[in-house]
Amino acid sequence: MSVVLAEGVADIGSEFADLDPSTDRYARRFQGPAGEWLLSCQTKALRCLCAPYPGASVLDVGGGHAQVATPLLDDGHEVCVYASSQEALGQMRGLHRPGLTTEVGPLRALPYADRSFDVVTSFRILAHVGDWQAFLGELCRVSRRAVIVDFPIASGANALEPLLFGLKKRLEGDTRRFQTMSRPQILKTLAVAGFAPQGEIGQFVLPMVVHRKLARPALSARLEAKLRALRLDRSLGTPVVLCAARDSAGMRAG
């Protein structure tokens, strides 16, 4: 299937919500000292939350950006990157590594039996799929042990997103709209699927665009450390990276 979208950016609710983050243009957002530092923070959070599941079989949904698959492969996991189209495989296309497979299909109805993978991950997608509750439910359905996702909260810097989107676009030159969600909403959806939170990390208290424009990773790290010391990351840190595990009753039933 060939996918063509205006300016290469899928609107919220598009069936190809994973296309934009898989592009070379999007990957350039994480190049240079500031971009590499931002990505390293996400990778650290991912590895921390995935540590209880060594050698896991992982389904990374919408993972054509390679931000999840690459470190998990490095850590010895078997990873299947699942995308909405061949184009959306993006940074994973042509990549051959032991333990890596890629598959293509609809994001909204994953073509796998219940509990097919130890861990299911999805980054950069939940804020763009439209019916995120149904999407998160699908991730839980095919997970045997845990799901790890990122999502933007409505508070903190994101509270001003509707007002500042134009300014952010002028500063960054490359951005897209997204939907936010609250922790209670996320936890309720997970609970319905039989999952309970195991840990979460609020990544940045300051807007990511501020760190990009500072272009001084050491300074950014010090600023965020001071804000974490005040525990502001617990209420304002975003995007949140969250791990939820299937509850013990569900594990026994499986």
UniProtKB/TrEMBL annotation:
Residues 59-144 form the Methyltransferase type domain. One of its GO terms (molecular function) is S-adenosylmethionine-dependent methyltransferase activity. Keywords: Methyltransferase, Transferase. InterPro entries: Methyltransf_11 (IPR013216), SAM-dependent_MTases_sf (IPR029063). GO terms for biological process: methylation. It comes from the Bacteria. Gene3D superfamilies: Vaccinia Virus protein VP39. Pfam families: Methyltransf_11 (PF08241). The keyword Transferase applies. This is Methyltransferase domain-containing protein.
